Automatic annotation (TrEMBL):
<dbReference type="InterPro" id="IPR033432">
    <property type="entry name" value="GH94_catalytic"/>
</dbReference>
<keyword id="KW-0328">Glycosyltransferase</keyword>
<dbReference type="GO" id="GO:0005975">
    <property type="term" value="P:carbohydrate metabolic process"/>
</dbReference>
<feature type="domain" description="Glycosyl hydrolase 94 supersandwich">
    <location>
        <begin position="11"/>
        <end position="297"/>
    </location>
</feature>
<keyword id="KW-0808">Transferase</keyword>
<dbReference type="InterPro" id="IPR010383">
    <property type="entry name" value="Glyco_hydrolase_94_b-supersand"/>
</dbReference>
<dbReference type="Pfam" id="PF17167">
    <property type="entry name" value="Glyco_hydro_94"/>
</dbReference>
<dbReference type="GO" id="GO:0016757">
    <property type="term" value="F:glycosyltransferase activity"/>
</dbReference>
<dbReference type="Pfam" id="PF06165">
    <property type="entry name" value="GH94_b-supersand"/>
</dbReference>
<dbReference type="InterPro" id="IPR012341">
    <property type="entry name" value="6hp_glycosidase-like_sf"/>
</dbReference>
<feature type="domain" description="Glycosyl hydrolase 94 catalytic">
    <location>
        <begin position="311"/>
        <end position="738"/>
    </location>
</feature>
<dbReference type="InterPro" id="IPR052047">
    <property type="entry name" value="GH94_Enzymes"/>
</dbReference>
<dbReference type="InterPro" id="IPR008928">
    <property type="entry name" value="6-hairpin_glycosidase_sf"/>
</dbReference>
<dbReference type="GO" id="GO:0030246">
    <property type="term" value="F:carbohydrate binding"/>
</dbReference>
<dbReference type="InterPro" id="IPR037018">
    <property type="entry name" value="GH65_N"/>
</dbReference>
<protein>
    <submittedName>
        <fullName>Cellobiose phosphorylase</fullName>
    </submittedName>
</protein>
<dbReference type="InterPro" id="IPR011013">
    <property type="entry name" value="Gal_mutarotase_sf_dom"/>
</dbReference>
Length: 814
């Protein structure tokens, strides 16, 4: 069953049924102010940090689902009937409904009792506010007397404290009302530097700012007393639960439309008024009055919306393809790239599966995300690299997460995820390949954000690699620490007492758990470092890293090969993990992909064997599962991974993040059909037809799809904020389509399916527009290039200074 359709011309997904299997969401904002919005108006917004600057409340795992958000109510004052034009929260059966999720905006439209409503939500560029532009139209043959109510529930800024510290928070709520603007100033007397506001373009009939006054006792958002009675209480919150609600009366003639605009925003006082211990307790509303006045004007709203569309068109136009497959075109040209930008903004901090409270920005996550957005926003990618490097520890290790508002490492999580540092090398390498801007390596960056500890970024990369070299186990493989890429594979656990477990770094024989995966990752990163060191003029360093990669590769091949595939690890007792000798968890996906991408086994047939084992043992119709056989009980020596039921999350689900590693590995060996087949199995657009099974949004990737051992095989979870977005973009564009940036220029090395006779692409690269036409011609393993009519040796297009390059590619493929 399908719940909507793609509108590729408008770059929108159109939802046609409000009761989607799960809330299908979108993101508003692309700079400092962000919002999550569902297809029924649910969600919340925040300034920069989803925990520390939360404007509105949202309760996860609430019932009914997706309860809390941007609510509007329409009331027919002649009959007393009322409904929500976004369906939630009244869930009235509407005569018509649609939700158009677009690039940074959503438009929800409906009709009930011949009253048509359309609400457009977006965040203007350069602003810290949401615009809700509601257009109400009377489709009746007689006049309509209506009341329009708005409703949001303010969060008391720190979302964790807001959800837990009730003895304080029920006493701190404060608001001010001035004309048609409601100001939320809870804790303003303490902080004195920021506040929220909720403004309306119309003169108000009434308002409410106290939740109970608006809803009534023992009532929910589905039937607020103020809406039911058609009269706001004009309440002023003093403690308890502050909200914002406007009431506007509308009398519409037949066919008449009225536009009512609401603004929900964040404002900080001018710098001279911040943190003044004897400053005035009065809000500096003058600072926000011009902004409110501007965006309550319909023509300014249109200009802002046009600017937003232009912004997204520019970003997406950096890479466009025309292939024989609509699902590939749709994801590459629109939705995959868009999702990569959302992960740039938010890492893993705030989705309908991430509360915005605990994780902040991930070090590993954000470095991997950069691979998918660096071509669109290279300047911002550069700053992201420097921000990440500044959270690195002097040892070369890294905080696993940091808070976006403060850019400080998260001590609650700490470091000791021993793969983390290596991803910084891969991110910087990707940036240099994309831009050729070598000056970034000279940028002085502190460690742990401590003044006086600044070192060139190049030194940070060296310490990243040194961190692994200094932490090798008894087999010469890298120590896994708390975990490697798989946070749930915790191998330094054991106990002398049955039923008791604890974390340690060594076992009774002085051995520690080792990761084959990090071994492959190190080989990959060290070879990248060797290449950039050579170009950077550090020849001795290049030789050292090249030799280090060779040594690690040899170690992995000696101690990390199980006969038909790569081992996963050695646990704290020195036992193999991911071996044919294990009763469960005999083969894992991660080392098969990363080790092959690092070139291990390429010359002796072992890479081919490893990928054949993936096809035979891990591939399913819904994607490649993470491991097999699934763990059917808890294993103390493996940790959290075995705590999940079989087929879910890290215990043998289709963990979509790792599937592209296998796609890229297959493509690197010239297996175009197999690489593309894997790509299509988890492609969201291709899965739209099975939305009732998939359940998550059909326009973005999910982190995980239930594996074959789960009763819900094929069901997706944890959509939007996942490294799946970046890695799938890399797999399809750089490995399958084969348009790959290098330090020396743009490489063309396609590994496309046999059924394709070719494709076209437009790629902006280092300021030059490349128009690439690829034509398949016979079998082989090479391409022939013509650039502006002249033949080019090899498969790398030399870097020109300026202009447009017409590239004709004749491909002889396996």
């Amino acid at each position: 069953m399908k719940f909507g359709h793609f509108d590729d011309i408008r770059r929108e997904y159109v939802i046609e049924h409000p009761d989607t299997p799960l809330p299908w969401i979108n993101y508003l904002g692309c700079e400092d102010f962000f919002g999550l919005i569902s297809n029924t108006g649910g969600g919340y917004c925040f300034y920069r940090d989803a925990r520390l600057r939360r404007l509105t409340r949202y309760r996860y795992n609430n019932v009914p689902g997706d309860c809390g958000g941007r609510y509007l109510y329409l009331r027919d004052d002649d009959t007393g009937a009322f409904w929500s034009p976004t369906w939630q929260p009244t869930r009235t059966e509407l005569e018509a409904y649609s939700c158009r999720h677009g690039m940074g905006y959503s438009i929800i439209a409906s009709q009930y009792s011949a009253i048509e409503a359309s609400v457009r939500y977006f965040v203007p560029l350069g602003q810290t506010l949401e615009v809700w532009q509601a257009v109400i139209t009377n489709r009746r043959s007689s006049p309509a007397q209506l009341s329009l109510f708005s409703a949001i529930e303010f969060c008391l800024w720190d979302a964790l404290d807001d959800a837990s510290n009730f003895q304080r928070n029920f006493n701190t709520g404060e608001v001010e009302v001035e004309g048609s603007v409601i100001y939320h100033k809870t804790e303003y007397r303490e902080r004195r530097d920021h506040f929220a506001y909720f403004a309306c373009s119309e003169a108000l009939t009434g308002f409410d700012t106290q939740r109970e006054a608006f809803l009534g006792a023992y009532r929910g958002w589905d039937r607020p007393r103020a809406v039911e009675e058609g009269k706001s209480g004009e309440s002023i919150a003093h403690g308890w639960a502050p909200i914002g609600s406007h009431q506007v009366n509308l009398r519409l003639q037949p066919g008449e439309s009225r536009t009512v605009t609401f603004l929900l925003g964040y404002q900080e006082n001018p710098p001279e008024q911040k943190f003044d211990p004897v400053g005035s307790q009065t809000l500096n509303k003058q600072s926000v009055h011009p902004i409110i006045a501007r965006y309550l004007q319909p023509d300014e709203v249109e200009k802002a919306f046009d600017g937003l569309q232009h912004y997204w068109n520019q970003l997406l136009d950096a890479f466009q393809v025309n292939t024989p497959d609509e699902h590939t075109n749709r994801m590459v040209n629109i939705w995959n790239a868009y999702q990569c930008m959302v992960t740039f903004n938010l890492s893993r901090s705030a989705s309908y599966f991430e509360s915005g409270i605990g994780r902040g920005m991930g070090f590993r996550d954000s470095n991997q995300d950069l691979l998918g957005f660096v071509h669109m926003i290279p300047a911002k990618a550069r700053q992201r690299i420097l921000d990440l490097a500044a959270t690195q520890l002097p040892t070369g290790g890294a905080y696993h997460q940091y808070q976006p508002l403060t850019k400080r490492g998260n001590n609650d999580v700490g470091g000791d995820f021993n793969d983390d540092p290596l991803w910084l090398v891969l991110a910087v390498s990707a940036y240099l390949k994309e831009t050729g801007e070598w000056g970034v390596l000279d940028e002085r960056v502190p460690y742990d954000n401590q003044p006086g500890s600044e070192q060139p970024l190049y030194e940070h990369l060296q310490r990243s690699l040194r961190y692994t070299i200094d932490r090798l186990g008894p087999h010469g493989l890298p120590l896994i620490g708390r975990a490697d890429w798989n946070d749930c594979l915790n191998l330094n656990c054991f106990s002398d007492t049955p039923g008791q477990s604890f974390q340690t770094t060594t076992n009774r024989e002085g051995k520690v758990a080792e990761s084959v995966f990090i071994g492959g990752l190190f080989a990959l990163a060290a070879n990248e470092m060797a290449a950039l060191s050579s170009r950077y003029g550090r020849r001795a360093d290049a030789d050292f890293y090249r030799l280090s990669a060779q040594k690690m590769s040899a170690t992995v091949m000696e101690h990390g090969w199980d006969g038909e595939w790569f081992l996963r690890a050695y646990d704290a007792l020195g036992e193999r993990v991911g071996s044919k000798d294990c009763p469960e968890g005999q083969i894992f996906i991660e080392p098969q992909g990363i080790c092959v991408l690092a070139g291990l086994g390429a010359t002796d047939g072992r890479a081919e064997k490893a990928l054949a084992s993936v096809r035979e043992r891990l591939a399913t119709q819904h994607g490649i599962v993470l491991l097999q056989p699934a763990f059917t009980r808890y294993y103390l020596n493996l940790g959290e991974i075995s705590s999940y039921p079989p087929g879910t999350k890290e215990n043998a689900s289709v963990f979509c993040h790792t599937n592209p590693w296998i796609m890229a590995a297959e493509a690197s060996l010239g297996h175009g059909d197999q690489a593309y087949d894997y790509y299509m199995r988890i492609n969201p657009s291709a899965r739209e037809a099975i939305s009732a099974v998939h359940r998550s949004e059909p326009y973005v990737y999910a982190q995980t799809i239930a594996g074959k051992d789960a009763p819900s095989f094929g069901e997706a979870k944890n959509s939007w904020l996942t490294g799946t977005a970046a890695w799938n973009f890399v797999a399809i564009t750089q490995w399958i389509l084969g348009i790959r940036p290098t330090l020396d220029g743009l490489q063309i090395a396609p590994a496309i399916p046999a059924a394709w006779q070719g494709f076209e692409a437009r790629r902006l690269y280092r300021g030059v527009s490349y128009v690439i036409r690829i034509e398949r011609r016979g079998r082989g393993n090479r391409v022939r290039l013509e650039v502006n009519g002249a033949g080019v040796e090899g498969n790398v297009i030399p870097i020109p200074a300026v202009g447009v390059r017409e590239v004709k590619v004749t491909a002889f493929l396996l």
